[in-house]
Amino acid sequence: MTDLVLPPGIILILAGLALPFVRHTARQILMIAAPLMVLIAIWALPDGTLATLDYLGLTLEPVKVDALSRLFATVFAIMGFAGGLFALNQTNARELAAAFVYAGSAIGVTLAGDLVTVFIFWEVMAIASTIVVWSGGPGARGSGLRYAAIHFLGGVFLMAGIAGVVAETGSTAFGPMQATSFPTILILVAFLINAGAPPLAAWLPDAYPRASWSGTVFLSAFTTKTAVYTLIRGYPGEEILIWIGLWMVFYGIVYAILENDMRRILAYSIVNQVGFMVCAVGIGTPLALNGAAGHAFAHIIYKALLLMSAGSVLYMTGKSKCTDLGGLFRTMPVSCVCGIVGALAISAFPLTSGFVAKSMISDAAGAEKMVVVYFLLAVASAGVFLHAGIKFPWFVFFQKDSGLRPQDPPWNMQAAMIFCAVLCIGLGVWYSPFYAILPYPVEYVPYDASHVIFYLQLLLFSGLAFFLMLGALKRTLTITLDIDWFWRRGGRAIAEEFEFQWLRAYGVIVEGFWRKLRLVIEGLYVNYGPDGPWSRTRPSGAVALWVSVLLSGFLLFSYL
Amino acid sequence: MSDHPTDAPGAGADLPPSGIPVFRVTPGTNRHWLVLPETIRLIWIVSLVVLAGTVAAEVAVDYHLKFGADSIPGFAALFGFFGCVVLVFGSKFLGIFLKRKDDYYDD
């Protein structure tokens, strides 16, 4: 009986593959219905290993459910629904198909009980998400290639690591590991690459803003949060993650402050937010892991909301740079208000989902007496409000009057935004049901008076700092160099130097060859040419003389 | 190369992905009540009152913070404010070395 349970993610993958072959209303119904069916399937499954499979002598567990996997699968299904609703007007069937396969395989990873199943869905995600990036148009080709290269590199690390773990332990089970042996370090590196960890984080802000107005919404949800899930499952309490997470937090803030493209600002803030989660995984206590999982859940929804708001602006105006935008609140009130709700949630304002989730992370650091981590997370929270919470709505919807008067997007896009906005506030106000589905039992009270006042002061005064420093934050037509310079420019510089040196060497070799050849030809000419000693004509009298000398010599010697 | 494919010539003469032309006006015409100087002054006044209120609220409740941070009045306010100042100017400093024109990678 248990063998009949298929991974619920398969429903989304099949729906995705079917999407290009159905049209209009049927396609729209499928895009709405399939994620809801998956959601029902996830909640219909009991805890435990529900399917086993023997493959190449390995025992696989394609469906294994517990509170952690159900939490992530749930939010991925919700995201599939909201993203599908938002993307109903997307005419590019290839992107939609890829997005659904991508979402389904992310759910596949969260419900995988063994590393081989994780790997399979991991690679399907990499392929499908690359297609989503590429669907952004001609401008996305290079970014998509770089994106694919990084993720396939991660896939190689993951496969090598899994092979090593299976060889060492004989088991494919996916449970807590420690990064003490080479294979487990490889797996950790693979997970971190997908999380957007240093030094390879540049793939994320490079590729995500190149996708279409709807593609970025899907991209923001799955890859990095699947990585967070695998880190919670595989490496809870791995101390180095605290520092990697903090690096990501501040990297995201600094780059987002300098950025001009609204969707790239939000992409940098994904790295920033995932940094909070990675840091929490490193702290590793039940409170911290609840915080990481809860923050991932909340983050997927408010980040999707922010990118839907940005996507609506892009959809209606075709513009993405802060320098071209501004003043859109006049004619896009729904996108503006929903964007502000998302911005408040990402900033962890009280009464939003971000607050009830992120508070657990900082309090977990506090409970472990990690003073430095605690205060760095606090200043980072202020920085989030600065770089995403105010910066995004301010520069897109307020700032100067750009003269653009676009309308709000079609009803379904508005509905998707309102749905996410309601969730952002709903989870923050009625947090008990949310806490009830977290992986560990929660005895945490987010709305403690001191805690609320601390956050209000922290956030509101960083808002004051923003408006007092507006001059320093003025947007410029610039991008900011990242580690990917090394393969986007540095690699080319090396190639150009190689080409230059090769041309020089080629010159020397070819010239040398011709010089040698000329010497040979000239030598031949000197000896065998018309004036050469070997082609001199000799008078026949001289020949007769020499022949007679030879013959007389022969005669003389034959008598001796 | 344009920044976004939809800006590319041939992708429907300057039409956004929605296919609906963007209505434009001269910037600054038909001023919205929200951007009038009086409104902005009012927003500043209300905001500053709220800011002061959050600091004043410390005395109204049993205020306690981790690691004894509550011994400094308005600690979180100062921390948030100066934290952001450091972040912005730190970023700008790094930007001196890292910023390039946005067509840097285009050929």
Structure description:
The complex is a heterodimer of chains A (560) and B (107). Chain A has 560 residues and is mainly alpha-helical. Chain A is built from 20 helices and three strands. A two-stranded antiparallel sheet of chain A has the order 1-2. In chain A, strand 1 and strand 2 form a beta hairpin. Chain A is elongated and about 135 Å long. The N and C termini of chain A lie far apart (117 Å). Chain B is built from two helices and one strand. Chain B has helices at 37-60, 75-98; one strand at residues 99-101. Mean pLDDT of chain B is 83; it is low at 1-12. At the A-B interface, helix 10, helix 12, helix 15, helix 18 and strand 3 of A face helix 1, helix 2 and strand 1 of B.
Characteristic key phrases:
heterodimer; A: 560 residues; mainly alpha; two-stranded antiparallel sheet; 3 strands; 71% helix; 3% strand; elongated; B: 107 residues; 2 helices; flat
In short:
With 560 residues, chain A is mainly alpha-helical. Chain A contains 20 helices and three strands.
Distance between the first and last residues' Cα of chain A: 117 Å
Calculate Rg of chain A over CA atoms: 33 Å
Low-confidence spans of chain B: 1-12
Strand order of the largest sheet of chain A: 1-2
Q: Mean pLDDT across all residues of chain B, rounded?
A: 83
Radius of gyration of chain B: 24 Å
What is the global morphology of chain A? elongated
Helix content of chain A: over 70%
Mean pLDDT of chain A: 92
Summing up helix and strand content along with how strands pair, one would put the structural category of chain B as mainly alpha
Q: What form of chain B results from the Cα inertia axes?
A: flat
Q: Helical stretch count of chain A?
A: 20
Instruction: Please provide the count of β strands of chain A.
Output: 3
Strand share of the residues of chain A? under 5%
User: Tally of extended strands of chain B?
Assistant: 1
Oligomer: heterodimer
Low-confidence region ranges of chain A: none
Query: First CA to last CA of chain B: what distance?
Result: 7 Å
User: What sequence of helices (H) and strands (E) makes up the elements of chain B?
Assistant: HHE
Largest β-sheet summary of chain A: 2 strands, antiparallel
